[in-house]
Amino acid sequence: MVKICCIGAGYVGGPTMAVMALKCPEIEVAVVDISEPRINAWNSDRLPIYEPGLDDVVKQCRGKNLFFSTDVEKHVFESDIVFVSVNTPTKTQGLGAGKAADLTYWESAARMIADVSKSSKIVVEKSTVPVRTAEAIEKILTHNSKGIEFQILSNPEFLAEGTAIKDLYNPDRVLIGGRDTAAGQKAIKALRDVYAHWVPVEQIICTNLWSAELSKLAANAFLAQRISSVNAMSALCEATGADVTQVAHAVGTDSRIGPKFLNASVGFGGSCFQKDILNLIYICECNGLPEAANYWKQVIKVNDYQKIRFANRVVSSMFNTVSGKKIAILGFAFKKDTGDTRETPAIDVCNRLVADKANLSIYDPQVLEEQIRKDLSMARFDWDHAVPLQQIKAEGSSEQVNIVSDAYEATKDAHGLCVLTEWDEFKSLDFKKIFDNMQKPAFVFDGRNVVDAVKLREIGFIVYSIGKPLDSWLKDMPAVA
Ligand code: NAI
């Protein structure tokens, strides 16, 4: 029986391996992690991550051919194929700080594999890594290999949080990169055979190692670029009276461009886009390509601009001051159907409003109070490091921030409300009831274009939607940065 082990039981390792176990009942799959609380949660009724459909998949296989364990070394020792899906954060210190990928976790996983292995193994890069990481990993493994053969494959993951199970069941493609040697091709075939249990073979793309590694960074950069492009358009729409939804529709119906990923918003978030583009920028710089680096830098700059533009719009609309005013924040996760808050635009928007002395009342259907407080007081990029390494700012903003358990409580007596995540439940709120309980004038700032602005204006709200013609009230207020 083939045995697979995955190092790293996070947003990628957990769901990916659960689906692999479900689709390959004759393969034993062990997901291992150094974090005991995380493994305990995977073995409990409350899984450590929220993902539609995930509970069901885990329930069907856990204890049969899917196991979660902290005994990393034992499972690596026993496995034929070892996936590595550990975090690859942005470096916070030293050479390449603020851009380069920190491969500390990856390297320690590779060293451990080299130390404990007594039989040949295929080691699969599942984490998103800089192009040519496989070369470094190969050196670590072969240096300590005691005559054992290791084959390195790159098999980047393209799932999106919130739709991970759907994406894993029906991926657009699976990408496998390997060495162009007989042993490399044999390893590619072994992994292809695993995926072929449920993915049509023509959708399994096999390439060289460097193309596979770079394709993942490229895909994220292209996706984020679309969001920054439409967000840059949204600012111009507000200035000219065009409507970004109409523009996006008109542009997206061009079959060469396509309709997806053209929703204007308060900005992109999530653990990958910014981190991976920064990494790409660093690689361009290291290869002496400053123009290419600057091109991608702009995607991040526009995203930062969009978050700050939104927060400034809130302040300027409310007579240029939010000091002492209650502002409801609806949604904190970086997108709907996930409890993940890594790099969520809500962090920058909330911190900006707190700096202007607003009192925030935050509600998110999936994010716990402890997480929100931590996010609002953590140093940049620290979220992706192991807990003992994280720096929490001593002076918190806790008295200005209140976390509540429903949207009506959040908005009671508030001067304004900001929608920062597109949760479906926000579309069907009783806005008449909310209006009646708010201070007047009552403002809605819709950072996701999910509320029915026409209906809300009829109720009496002053409404700001991203990239839409402005209410006359907002037009008269000071211009925003
Ligand atoms: P995560 O932070 O949720 O999970 C990583 C896990 O690895 C943590 O639980 C950590 O305790 C564990 N870990 C770290 N070092 C370890 C070691 N030496 N031994 C055992 N366990 C160790 O991260 P996530 O989101 O799952 O991402 C993992 C990788 O996949 C990253 O490179 C990311 O860029 C990439 N990726 C993430 C996607 C996402 O949507 N979150 C999508 C596609 C790729």
UniProtKB/TrEMBL annotation:
Biological process terms in GO annotation: glycosaminoglycan biosynthetic process; UDP-glucuronate biosynthetic process
Pathway info: Nucleotide-sugar biosynthesis; UDP-alpha-D-glucuronate biosynthesis; UDP-alpha-D-glucuronate from UDP-alpha-D-glucose: step 1/1
Enzyme class at the top of the EC tree: oxidoreductase
InterPro entries xrefs: 6-PGluconate_DH-like_C_sf, NAD(P)-bd_dom_sf, UDP-Glc/GDP-Man, UDP-Glc/GDP-Man_DH_C, UDP-Glc/GDP-Man_DH_C_sf, UDP-Glc/GDP-Man_DH_dimer, UDP-Glc/GDP-Man_DH_N, UDPglc_DH_euk
Recorded superkingdom: Eukaryota
GO CC, any one term: nucleus
Record: residues binding NAD(+): 8-13, 33, 38, 86-90, 127-128, 161, 272-275, 342
Residue numbers annotated as active site: 272 (nucleophile)
Reactions it catalyzes: UDP-alpha-D-glucose + 2 NAD(+) + H2O = UDP-alpha-D-glucuronate + 2 NADH + 3 H(+)
Any one Gene Ontology molecular-function term assigned to this protein's record: NAD binding
Keywords: NAD, Oxidoreductase
All copies of domain UDP-glucose/GDP-mannose dehydrogenase C-terminal, residue ranges: 328-453
Enzyme Commission designation: 1.1.1.22
NCBIfam families cross-referenced by the UniProt entry: NDP-sugDHase
PANTHER family per UniProt: UDP-GLUCOSE 6-DEHYDROGENASE 1 (PTHR11374:SF53), UDP-GLUCOSE DEHYDROGENASE/UDP-MANNAC DEHYDROGENASE (PTHR11374)
Family assignment from sequence similarity: Belongs to the UDP-glucose/GDP-mannose dehydrogenase family.
Protein name in UniProt: UDP-glucose 6-dehydrogenase
Lineage of origin: Eukaryota, Viridiplantae, Streptophyta, Embryophyta, Tracheophyta
